[in-house]
Amino acid sequence: MTIPLAHTGQAITITGYPLAAPVTIRDAQPDHTINGEGWLLSVAQAMDLLDAWKDGHGEADVVREYTYSESGLFITGLYLDREIDLSVWESATGSDGDDLYSTVMMPFDFEVQEQKQ
Q1: What average pLDDT does this structure show over 43-52?
Q2: What pTM, to 2 d.p., does this model score?
Q3: Among 22, 6, 11, 2, CA closest to 116
């Protein structure tokens, strides 16, 4: 899956369980100001990553869902072994639809690598 992103010319790849395939994000923004490391994703880019997470590998009884709040929050829910785990991914900066989400703060243990150009 390839996700078109910001406008700085960097491409990153995000991998890890339960993603069925690496997620490539083109033209990602390096996070030099908010966390000093990682990458910043737009609302649409974060949603595409969350869609890949939601549709990832897992047993038939595993359910993954997420929702977006206009206040700048993504809430993720994982139902596994009759237990629910909720996580919040809040925006690093922005508001009213121009929020940016830091890969440093995402509620997953994914690996993010910059692709060689």
Answers
A1: 94
A2: 0.86
A3: 11
Instruction: Give the integer Cα–Cα distance in Å for 114 and 80.
Output: 32
Q: Report H helices in the chain.
A: 43-54
20: which 2 tokens? 């069925």
Contacts of the segment 70-77: beta carbons below 8 A, 24+ positions apart: 70/96, 70/97, 72/99, 74/46, 74/50, 74/101, 76/50, 76/107
Count other Cβ atoms within 10 Å, centred on residue 23.
22
Q: How far apart are CA 75 and CA 89, in angstroms?
A: 6
* 62-79 pLDDT tens trace: 999 999 988 889 999 999
Query: How many residues appear in the chain?
Result: 117
Instruction: Decide the pairing of beta strands 10-15 and 39-42.
Output: unpaired
